[in-house]
């Protein structure tokens, strides 16, 4: 009961760069899904290729990543994703309960 | 014994509340509610103890890495509300826009009010609870979820029309729309009308033995900021400040940035000729947006106060569980963004407050009332002690099982890994244990 919990959220995008329907893409236009994982120490987000017909995400198709270490960066202004080896992060995610 | 439920949902309300540590906002009625409630400080999106592996079948052959993503709530109105009210994650509802009804699109998932109705409750909806339109079958999911058709305030039809007096003296569809209420159609505004109707409904249920579930969905602080102009006086513009980080971060991936298109479309914002997609909005206008948002929060807080006062006056405060939450948050200029269309914490962090009589508060029948109304316009900001908090992450899919249990019903069973065919189950946790458990660590 006292184990640290993780919360998740997601957001769809139609493209890699902002366009007029980036805020509210129709289902058929969703090409990328951003999955966020947050704990009390960090927020980690991967923007992954998404197939709106099958609703499947392709974890090999990483469009972008975000990582914010909240102790030093509570405002989430300093993305340190590129400072970490992606495979190391993915291994850590896989070991989550 | 079964408790009544008063379920209050604000629209686009971030944790800009006194009880969540915001020192600028005046939200005395919600703060008073929080002082007698369990406050979940970190309600973002869903948290799940089990890990659903959705990706293994598309991993390249030979890759031994098994990734588990538990897919949960997104910061957009319709999927967010449907997800919360069905206690299913977006990848179960498969709703990523507001153009589908879950019972047709995905599965015949039971909703929170529907469950209460099936257990003998009289269920009622006032205002924006389900997302209107196709997303709730054009009926707010009546009759499944509600004993009577949902009520919507008549004055809402003016919300997107040209109701805001501009500098030219003409009416516009502005973002910033503080008005003289007496000059509005009907001399009212949607959340005032909703509160009037909710008060009326509470009076009809006061002496009925059948327990009730009343959901009240306020339309504020969603844009446009069409609010009584007197609330702006609580936030003098000279005292407003910009967001602490108002610039687009250099290392923010372009895909992560949301261009706040709905804000841009408002007449007063269009006149500013802001470049797409990064802007920025001129600083003085940024201050005015923040001022109007906070004023909208105070206005909504006053409506919550009116509702809770009525609950009290009718003698229902000691037999009614009150839940206060929001569908998602709103960016106020952080990272150069506005609105809600991102994964940042300001858009996903929401208030979640549970008042349970006899559990979070002991009602002393000999003393003063539980929820005396506090007028933010005339009364000084009271200080409330918020001491029943939970800091660990919780999810809005937890609301359904938790409300059920705290009202005296059995919480729905956890969903199986594949739950499309299962009508009643929950992908959230029953948080009832947290009401008696002291958080460690």
Structure description:
The complex is a heterodimer of chains A (97) and B (441). Chain A is 9% helix and 39% strand. Chain A has 97 residues and is mainly beta. A 4-stranded antiparallel sheet of chain A has the order 1-2-3-4, with no helix packed on it. Chain B is α/β, with parallel strands linked by helices and 441 residues long. Chain B has helices at residues 28-35, 77-86, 90-93, 102-105, 112-118, 190-205, 261-264, 267-270, 283-313, 345-348, 399-406, and strands at 4-10, 38-40, 73-74, 122-127, 164-165, 171-172, 176-179, 212-217, 225-228, 320-326, 331-332, 338-339, 352-355, 389-390. In chain B, the strands form 4 sheets. Chain B has a 7-stranded mixed sheet, sandwiched between helices. The radius of gyration of chain B is 22 Å and the shape is globular. The chains are: A mainly beta (97), B alpha/beta (441). The interface between A and B is large, with 62 and 71 residues.
Care to give the gist of this entry?
The complex is a heterodimer of chains A (97) and B (441). With 97 residues, chain A is mainly beta.
Topology:
The complex is a heterodimer of chains A (97) and B (441).
Chain A: E1 7-13, E2 32-38, E3 42-51, E4 56-69, H1 86-94
Antiparallel strand pairs in A: 1-2, 2-3, 3-4
Chain B: E1 4-10, H1 28-35, E2 38-40, E3 73-74, H2 77-86, H3 90-93, H4 102-105, H5 112-118, E4 122-127, E5 164-165, E6 171-172, E7 176-179, H6 190-205, E8 212-217, E9 225-228, H7 261-264, H8 267-270, H9 283-313, E10 320-326, E11 331-332, E12 338-339, H10 345-348, E13 352-355, E14 389-390, H11 399-406
Parallel strand pairs in B: 1-8, 1-10, 2-14, 4-8, 7-9
Antiparallel strand pairs in B: 2-13, 5-6, 10-13, 11-12
Helix pairs in contact in B: 6-9
């Amino acid at each position: 009961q006292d184990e640290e919990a993780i919360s998740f959220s997601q957001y769809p995008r139609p493209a890699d760069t902002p366009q007029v329907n980036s805020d509210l893409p129709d289902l058929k236009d969703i090409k990328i899904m951003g999955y966020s994982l947050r704990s009390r120490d960090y927020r980690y987000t991967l923007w992954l290729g998404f197939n709106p017909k099958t609703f499947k995400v392709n974890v090999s198709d990483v469009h972008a990543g975000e990582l914010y270490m909240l102790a030093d960066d509570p405002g989430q202004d300093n993305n340190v994703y590129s400072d970490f080896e992606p495979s190391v992060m993915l291994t850590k995610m896989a070991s989550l309960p | 014994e079964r408790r009544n439920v008063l379920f209050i949902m604000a629209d686009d309300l971030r944790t800009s509340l006194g009880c969540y540590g915001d020192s600028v906002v005046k939200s005395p009625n919600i703060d008073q509610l929080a002082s007698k409630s369990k406050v979940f400080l970190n309600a973002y999106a869903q948290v799940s103890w089990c890990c659903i592996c959705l990706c293994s079948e598309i991993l390249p052959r030979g890759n031994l890495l098994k990734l588990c993503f538990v897919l949960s709530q997104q910061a957009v109105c319709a999927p967010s509300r449907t997800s919360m009210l069905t206690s299913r994650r977006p990848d179960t509802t498969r709703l990523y826009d507001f153009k589908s009804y879950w019972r047709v699109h995905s599965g015949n998932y039971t909703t929170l009010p529907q469950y209460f109705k099936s257990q003998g409750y009289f269920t009622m909806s006032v205002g924006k609870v389900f997302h209107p339109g196709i997303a709730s079958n054009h009926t707010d999911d009546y009759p499944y979820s509600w004993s009577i058709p949902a009520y919507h305030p008549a004055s809402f039809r003016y919300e997107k029309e040209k109701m805001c007096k501009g500098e030219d003296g003409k009416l516009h569809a502005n973002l910033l729309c503080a008005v003289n209420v007496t000059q509005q159609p009907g001399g009212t505004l949607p959340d005032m009308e909703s509160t009037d109707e909710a008060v009326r409904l509470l009076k009809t249920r006061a002496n009925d033995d059948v327990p009730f579930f009343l959901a009240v969905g306020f339309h504020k602080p969603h844009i446009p900021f069409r609010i009584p102009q007197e609330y702006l006086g609580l936030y003098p513009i000279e005292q407003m400040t910009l967001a602490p980080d108002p610039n687009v971060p250099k290392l923010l991936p372009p895909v992560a940035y949301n261009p706040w298109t709905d804000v841009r479309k408002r007449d007063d914002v269009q006149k500013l000729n802001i470049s797409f997609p990064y802007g920025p909005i001129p600083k003085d206008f940024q201050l005015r947006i923040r001022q109007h948002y906070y004023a909208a929060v105070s206005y909504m807080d006053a409506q919550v106060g009116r509702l809770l006062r009525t609950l009290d006056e009718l003698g229902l405060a000691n037999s009614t569980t009150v839940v206060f939450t929001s569908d998602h948050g709103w960016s106020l200029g952080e990272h150069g963004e506005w609105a809600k269309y991102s994964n940042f914490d300001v858009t996903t962090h929401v208030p979640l407050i549970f008042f349970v009589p006899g559990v979070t508060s002991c009602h002393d029948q000999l003393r003063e009332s539980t929820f005396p109304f506090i007028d933010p316009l005339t009364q000084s900001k009271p200080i409330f002690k918020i001491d029943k908090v939970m800091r660990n992450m919780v999810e809005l899919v937890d609301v359904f099982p938790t409300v059920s249990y705290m009202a005296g019903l059995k919480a729905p069973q956890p969903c199986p890994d594949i739950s499309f065919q299962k009508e009643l189950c929950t992908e959230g946790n029953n948080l009832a244990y947290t009401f008696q458990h002291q958080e460690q660590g």
